[in-house]
Structures are given as structure tokens and as C-alpha cells.
Design a protein that fits this description.
Blueprint (H helix, E strand, L loop, with lengths): L1 H17 L16 H20 L4 H5 L9 H19 L13 H24 L10 H25 L8 E2 L4 E2 L4
Antiparallel strand pairs: 1-2
């Protein structure tokens, strides 16, 4: 019986590690600055903000909206997912996100974070010498378009979750990209 409990605990621990989503904290900063590593850090910052803006959202949070002509939090999350697909599909030459299926909130959240992580890793690959001119659309437009739009909408999710009674955690440092109290 004792070995069975240890085995179950070990399996659960492995499952938690394998199911861990990116951007609980921002990855270590690169050793050097290049246009590509700087762009990757912007994507990492977006991923970190999105992770915490959406962490612990409840069904009532996802359905909440300020007024009749505004988006719900769930619709905003859907839009951010679409932006992450655009970013991924514009930067990566293969391994595109071509999903057209309806996803649950948890699936959208996970895929959004994975899309951002893949882009960041591609930008950092080859010692940060990613050719920003090789993207499907001009990289400047990716920054001021979908990247900044997604950051904007992360702020909206935070505002909406506060309004629906589920405020953003105070244990997150947006400045350092870390969790202040891991207990």
C-alpha cells in the first residue's frame, strides 16, 4: 500500500510538471541584446501578463461585461487567442496554429501561452540572430499591431475580473516578471 501511494504521488507530480504552462514567471533574460532577443522579451512580457490576467478566471468572470455593447472577458480571451495565432503564424515559417475548432477557455488559455512561447523561442534561436525581415508581415506591424493590442486586452481582462469580484493577484511583480510569494 505504501508503494502504491508513493507511485500515485510520483505520477501526479510528473503530470503537474508536464502540464505546467509557460509564463508563470518570465524566463531568464538573454545574455545580450539584439533586435530579436528584445522582441522575444516583449513576447515574454505579454505571455507573463496574459498568464496572470487569466489565471483563476471563473465562469462568471468569463461571462461578465461592463455594458451591452462591450465584450465579455471570455470574448476578450478569444480575441487574444486570435492575436497570438496571428503573431505565431506571421513569425514562424512552419509549425503554424491552424486550429479552427472551438476551444474551451482552458484550451484557449493554454494554446495562447504556447503560441507566445513558440514565437519567443524562435526569436531567441541562433543566438538571437532571427531575421526580423523574414516575417510574413513587417515585424514593426506585428509589434504595434497584435502584440500591443494583446497587451491592451490583457489589461481589459484584469479590469473586468476586478469588476466581477475576482481581482488580479497582488503576489505578481510585473516589473521583475516574478511571483513575490510562491507559498
Amino acid at each position: 500500500m505504501r508503494y502504491l501511494i508513493i507511485l500515485l504521488f510520483t505520477i501526479q507530480s510528473f503530470a503537474q510538471v508536464s502540464n505546467k504552462l509557460p509564463y508563470y514567471e518570465i524566463p531568464e533574460s538573454p545574455e545580450f541584446y539584439t533586435p530579436a532577443t528584445t522582441a522575444a522579451r516583449m513576447i515574454d512580457g505579454l505571455g507573463f501578463r496574459y498568464y496572470w490576467a487569466t489565471q483563476g478566471l471563473r465562469a462568471e468572470d468569463l461571462a461578465y461585461k461592463i455594458g451591452a455593447d462591450s465584450r465579455t472577458s471570455g470574448e476578450t480571451v478569444e480575441h487574444i487567442y486570435g492575436l497570438s495565432k496571428f503573431i505565431r503564424n506571421s513569425v514562424l515559417t512552419d509549425n503554424k496554429d491552424e486550429n479552427k475548432d472551438e476551444l474551451s477557455f482552458e484550451e484557449k488559455r493554454k494554446q495562447t501561452l504556447l503560441n507566445l512561447k513558440l514565437v519567443s523561442e524562435a526569436l531567441k534561436a541562433n543566438n538571437g540572430n532571427f531575421d526580423l525581415a523574414s516575417t510574413e508581415v513587417p515585424f514593426w506591424n506585428i509589434i504595434n499591431g497584435p502584440v500591443e493590442d494583446a497587451v491592451w486586452h490583457c489589461g481589459q481582462v484584469v479590469m473586468l475580473r476586478r469588476a466581477s469580484g475576482n481581482p488580479f493577484t497582488s503576489n505578481v511583480s510585473l516589473f521583475s516578471g516574478t511571483v513575490k510569494d510562491k507559498n
